[in-house]
């Protein structure tokens, strides 16, 4: 019988031919999950045959994130068992259900995964491990309402590993991403991934290529966690940037997006998840340092080990200072009033550049901007993060345009309205991507040198 690979990839495609092509292209460390509820009009046995038996068959109820009506349980089980003549490698049966006779008869050639999806706020995994149903592997799925919730799974996962159990326990939702990515480090035997060419089958499910790039199957208990804290952060380039550098440096650290907008929740997560390095973004650049009793704004925190004092840096300021040195001198129009705007103003003042700042709280008059005759403009608002966002303060930008020679933006989404305006105006543009690379390089160096993940050389 086939062993259970580390990655289970849910075939979530709208079209069966696309799902089949995806399954056939999966690497050896990934097993397709054939969700019968997603293809209700196709014959289960024939789909298993087309997959050459190499699959995990399941059929999810609506209450568990699937599409099979909750009120049709008998029909669901009949449909699930129709896959057995195809001799699938694995079949998923809910944790609390008795073993149907046809499945019991197939146990010589079909391995059994027992699964349970619990409601928000329920953490009954330890109790369930005391009375395991018959099976070859087990899956427990909850929901993360707070970023630190994932830490509640570390102890039972370690216990299962120590007792030789194939267990996966993780939390759905964006705040549950640490539990999916750190599964192997915490003792889990497998984790679920979205197909690279299809949508996630559950909230917080990460594409297979991303999990493999993070080397999640190779993580061990000595790995330390770093990440970007703020909201939103799922779009962040940080994981792709930092994880490659950690791997090149043979540093056992993993960098993840850690969505969290409240400093109290972030404080809880820093300790619950034993975070060693954190990149801070809006709205936490000022609020989290304040909660930690540190002077802000900051964008970088790191420590050697959990419980050690935090070391701090503002690599935003370093990146801005380096960029300014290459730009024409003169006054600067600064748009925005948040943490990154405060950092910008401090760097500009240290460089001796006059600043006129405008924000929603303290608007400026276009006439005053024109008279100020700025040589440069810095876009430090959040506009541009969302698709379709306009450029900020268009009346002020047009008033400044005759004297402007350069523009700079902190948002690093592609093709923002501000960047398009600056290029159309013929200005030298320092993009958000340029600033990101400069500040992230400084962060990576500090994480690699200062965080305590083991050196794997």
Number of domains: 3
Named at the architecture level, the CATH assignment of the largest domain is: Alpha-Beta Barrel
State the helical fraction.
25-40%
| Spatial arrangement of strands, main beta sheet | 7-6-5-4-3-2-1-8
Number of helices: 18
Largest sheet descriptor: 8 strands, parallel
What oligomeric state best describes the polypeptide chains here?
Answer: single chain
What are the low-pLDDT stretches, counting only 5+ consecutive residues below 50? none
Gyration radius, to the nearest Å? 26 Å
The CATH homologous superfamily of the largest domain:
Aldolase class I
Classification by helices and strands: alpha/beta
CATH C-level category of the largest domain: Alpha Beta
Total beta strand runs = 18
Instruction: Classify the fold: give the CATH topology of the largest domain.
Output: TIM Barrel
Gross geometry: elongated
Strand content: 15-25%
Description:
The protein has 457 residues and is of the alpha/beta class. The protein has three domains: 7-219, Alpha-Beta Barrel (TIM Barrel), CATH 3.20.20.70; 240-315, Leucine Dehydrogenase, chain A, domain 1 (Rossmann fold); 316-438, NAD(P)-binding Rossmann-like Domain (Rossmann fold), CATH 3.40.50. It has 18 helices and 18 strands. The protein has helices at residues 16-25, 44-50, 73-81, 101-105, 125-129, 154-162, 177-181, 183-186, 208-213, 238-248, 263-272, 284-292, 315-324, 339-350, 366-372, 394-400, 417-424, 432-450; strands at residues 7-10, 30-35, 56-58, 90-94, 111-117, 137-143, 167-172, 191-193, 224-230, 253-259, 275-280, 300-302, 311-313, 332-335, 355-358, 376-379, 406-409, 428-430. The strands form three sheets. The protein has an eight-stranded parallel sheet. A five-stranded mixed sheet has the order 10-9-11-12-13, sandwiched between helices. α10 (238-248) links the parallel β9 and β10. α15 (366-372) packs parallel to α16. The chain is elongated and about 85 Å long. It starts with 6 loop residues before the first strand and ends in a 7-residue tail after the last helix. 46% of the residues are buried.
């Amino acid at each position: 019988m086939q062993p259970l690979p580390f990655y289970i990839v849910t075939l979530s495609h709208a079209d069966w031919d696309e799902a089949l092509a995806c399954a056939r292209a999966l690497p050896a460390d990934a097993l397709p999950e054939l969700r019968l509820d997603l293809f209700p009009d196709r014959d289960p046995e024939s789909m298993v045959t087309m997959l050459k038996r190499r699959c995990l068959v399941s059929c999810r109820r609506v209450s568990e994130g699937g599409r099979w009506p909750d009120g049709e349980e008998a029909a669901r089980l009949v449909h699930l068992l129709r896959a057995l003549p195809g001799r699938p490698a694995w079949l998923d049966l809910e944790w609390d259900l008795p073993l149907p006779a046809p499945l019991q008869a197939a146990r010589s050639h079909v391995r059994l995964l027992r699964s349970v999806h619990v409601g928000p706020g329920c953490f009954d995994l330890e109790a369930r491990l005391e009375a395991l149903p018959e099976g070859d592997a087990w899956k427990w799925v909850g929901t993360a309402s707070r970023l630190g919730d994932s830490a509640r799974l570390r102890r039972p996962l370690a216990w299962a590993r120590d007792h030789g159990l194939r267990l996966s326990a993780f939390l759905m939702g964006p705040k549950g991403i640490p539990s999916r990515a750190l599964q192997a480090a915490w003792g889990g035997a497998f984790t679920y991934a979205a197909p690279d060419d299809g949508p996630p089958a559950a909230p917080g499910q990460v594409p297979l290529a991303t999990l493999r790039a993070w080397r999640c199957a190779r993580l061990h208990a000595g790995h330390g966690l770093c990440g970007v804290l703020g909201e939103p952060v799922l779009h962040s380039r940080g994981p792709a940037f930092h994880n490659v550098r950690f791997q090149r440096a043979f540093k056992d650290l993993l960098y993840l997006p850690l969505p969290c907008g409240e400093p109290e929740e972030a404080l809880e997560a820093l300790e619950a998840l034993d975070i060693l390095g954190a990149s801070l973004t809006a709205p936490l650049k000022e609020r989290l340092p304040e909660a930690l009793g540190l002077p802000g704004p900051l964008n970088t925190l790191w420590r050697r080990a959990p419980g050690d004092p935090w070391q701090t840096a503002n690599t935003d300021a370093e990146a801005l200072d380096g960029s300014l040195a290459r730009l024409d001198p003169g006054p600067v129009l600064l748009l925005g009033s948040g943490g990154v705007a405060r950092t910008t103003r401090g760097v500009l003042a240290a460089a001796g550049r006059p600043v006129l700042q405008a924000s929603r709280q303290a608007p400026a008059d276009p006439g005053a901007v024109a008279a100020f005759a700025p040589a440069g403009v810095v876009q430090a608002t959040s506009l541009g993060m969302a698709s379709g966002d306009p450029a900020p303060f268009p009346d002020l930008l047009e008033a400044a345009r005759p004297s402007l020679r350069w523009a700079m933006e902190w948002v690093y989404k592609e093709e923002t309205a501000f960047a398009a305006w600056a290029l159309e105006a013929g200005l030298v543009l320092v993009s958000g991507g340029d600033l990101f690379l400069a500040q992230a390089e400084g962060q990576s160096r500090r994480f690699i040198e200062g965080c305590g993940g083991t050196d794997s050389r």
